[in-house]
Design brief:
The protein has 15 helices and 3 strands. By secondary structure, the chain is mainly α. The longest helix has 76 residues. It has a 3-stranded antiparallel sheet with strand order 1-2-3. α9 runs antiparallel to α12 and α14 runs antiparallel to α15. The radius of gyration is 40 Å and the shape is elongated. It starts with 14 loop residues before the first helix and ends in a 6-residue tail after the last helix.
């Protein structure tokens, strides 16, 4: 059964009267959404339905909009269904841009109780949306914040979930300027951890600044009728009002409290909702920011073993470690020189050619020519082998030279990274301080 599925149970006794009140309620909502005014037809255009809360609730709303006393119809509606009456009035006044006219107690009655263990109803989410957008003024926003604070929501989701919601799509590796020529060094844990922490802290600060600097909605502003959040328009005040009076389509699925808050934090979400979600996530963000600031300020290692051309070289402040560099050079030589057997084929060809030449005077000139050709072929094979050996030697010499050059460059990159760490720590402290200031603003940031 849906949130508003019991609406038809008290209408079967008078279907004609029910049709009248529904028709008028639909016209009323259309006028409210268009210009915030009641339709020209008088509330007597429909009859009361005994036991049904909507007719007196509509009368009370029209009286409020007209500046008349709504007490009598309001009492009748509340006696029939207090929560639906309160929800109807709160949302209708929000949609009309007159949310400041609600009574303080109506919000509490309409909202009901939030729970971590139960989905948020469409009625609760629509009030949440209206309050976040300023429909009920600062008091409405603080009402929602207090409801959320009472549940300690941030303790029911992993800290990483809140961070991923705020800054999705983080890079797998952050390459600082000092390691631009040695990006593989940026993956070494001792160097990666401070750079990644500083980058994440800067991104968190930027996202929090984006949320808290969003344009604020005035207390009497008309509530927008669509949303950019993941959970769709079924939670919008006007859509919930239509479901409440029995004119809406099938209800969409409801989501959990944590799911809504995580969606509200994601880039592209409604900035007013993001402000409230940021307030809820603030305790988690403080802890995370402190950890990131500490990681960003870690002292760089004085010595480090890094992979260079597939070989592990131990770097020291004064230069590459001689023993590890020598071992790497020997490995380059061993791997770069292809073992070659003796050129037996070429030697046999030359011996055969010499034999042919030796026997040529006793036989024919043709045998002499064959001997010369055979010797030539053997010599060509020896020459080719020599060229390959020279190429191997040149390749090995080039690899050894490049290895030494890269090892020296890596040492200088490590020195540059150490110099860079002071600026990184200073920037991280500034980012953390600014982030604390932004989230300390609490409800004002929403």
């Amino acid at each position: 059964m849906g949130e508003f599925s019991a609406l038809s149970t008290d209408l079967t006794a008078s279907p004609q009267a029910a049709t009248e009140v529904h028709r008028y309620a639909e016209a009323l909502l259309a006028h409210l959404a268009a210009d915030g005014a009641a339709p020209p037809a008088a509330p007597v255009a429909f009859r009361d339905v005994p036991g049904f809360w909507l007719p007196p609730a509509v009368e009370a709303l029209v009286a409020l909009l007209s500046g008349d006393d709504p007490l009598e119809p309001l009492s009748r509606a509340a006696s029939r269904d207090q929560q639906r009456t309160a929800l109807f009035l709160c949302l209708a006044l929000a949609v009309s841009g007159q949310g400041s006219r609600i009574h303080a107690s109506w919000l509490g009655t309409a909202f009901g109780e939030l729970s971590i263990d139960r989905p948020v109803t469409h009625g609760q989410r629509s009030l949440w949306l209206a309050a976040a957008r300023g429909a009920y003024g600062p008091a409405g926003k603080i009402f929602v914040l207090r409801k959320l604070d009472a549940l300690a929501v941030q303790e029911h989701a992993d800290a990483e979930q809140w961070i991923q919601a705020l800054i999705p799509g983080e890079p797998a590796v952050v390459v600082p300027p000092s390691l631009a020529d040695f990006p593989e060094m940026a993956e070494i844990p001792e160097l990666a951890r401070p750079a990644m922490a500083a980058d994440r802290l800067a991104r968190l600060r930027g996202r929090c600044a984006e949320i808290t600097s969003a344009r604020k909605t005035g207390p009497d502003a008309r509530v927008p009728l669509d949303t950019s959040g993941t959970h769709g328009a079924e939670n919008e005040p006007l859509a919930v009002l239509r479901s409440l009076i029995g004119s809406g389509g099938p209800e969409g699925p409801m989501a959990s409290l944590v799911s809504y808050l995580l969606d509200d934090l994601r880039p592209g979400a409604d900035p007013q909702l993001a402000g409230i979600a940021l307030h809820v996530a603030a305790p988690i963000l403080r802890v995370v920011a402190e950890e990131l600031e500490t990681d960003s300020s870690l002292e760089p290692p004085e010595t480090l073993t890094v992979p260079i051309l597939g070989h592990r070289i131990h770097l020291r402040p004064e230069g590459p470690d001689r023993a590890s560099l020598a071992a790497a050079e020997q490995s380059v030589i061993t791997e770069g020189v292809i073992p070659r057997s003796r050129p037996w084929a070429a030697i046999l060809l030359i011996v055969a050619g010499v034999a042919c030449l030796a026997g040529a005077p006793l036989t024919t000139p043709l045998l002499a020519a064959a001997g010369v050709a055979t010797i030539g072929l053997g010599g060509w094979q020896l020459w080719q082998r020599r060229k390959l050996v020279e190429a191997d030697a040149q390749y090995v010499a080039g690899q050894v030279s490049e290895l030494r050059e890269l090892a020296e460059g890596a040492v200088w990159a490590l020195h540059a990274y150490a110099r860079e760490s002071d600026a990184r720590a200073k920037q991280a402290a500034e980012d953390a301080s600014e982030l604390f200031r932004l989230i300390r603003r609490g409800p004002r940031a929403a």
